[in-house]
Amino acid sequence: MLRAIIVEDEKHNRETLKNLLTEFCPEVEVAGMAASVEEALVLIRSVRPDLVFLDIELQTGTGFDLLAQLQGLDFEVVFTTAFEQYAIKAIKFSSLDYLLKPIDLEELQAAVAKALKRKSATEQKARLDILLSHLKPSVQPERRICLSTADGLEFITTSDILYCEANGSYTNFHLKNDRKIIVSKNLKEYESLFDETHFMRVHNRYLVNLREVRRFVKTEGGYILMNNDAQIGISPKNRAAFIEKMGQIG
Q: Whole domain around residue 62: which residue ranges?
């Protein structure tokens, strides 16, 4: 059984989520609800929940403001939001769950099922630390990301990634030191995550770290030689943009 609280500033949304959990998620006990950051702080400290459904936009601040004020973040978090926004990228970087309003029942049940497979408190804190770091302005090309694999969670920095390779509905992450991580998400999802870093989709199959490119070879149809000697194909339509971006890498 998961002790959960709901943090949501609109009463209708609070009650709707509570009713869905009560009727369709018997594994969850709703131990309290809060409408503001201040109320949520008091509630979390008194209830010590296993799971927090946290609205991103609150009238008294944001859900991230709430997390930043808490020590020892040892509960699972499922964010709720009415629209796609910049923060969703940070949430995906940290492999945390979010639900778009109006909340879909199947997505809610899937989020609860994940929460039941509770990660360790250390891993959860690491994921939330990654989330909060991505919400801070930064010009650093090196950012941390959490990758969810069949064996657990992998915490890596983006600078350790040489390139990502599409593998059907999976993505193979090729890392420094000849490591490879397989993640059950498609390459397009990571292309959208990395679009503001030094990465580029150069081919249907490949997303490369431009800082790890050794050279561009024009012969044999053209290909990219990476620092680990891997040869990466490049689509003709992407060549001009690739050369331009390489010229901008400091």
A: 2-134
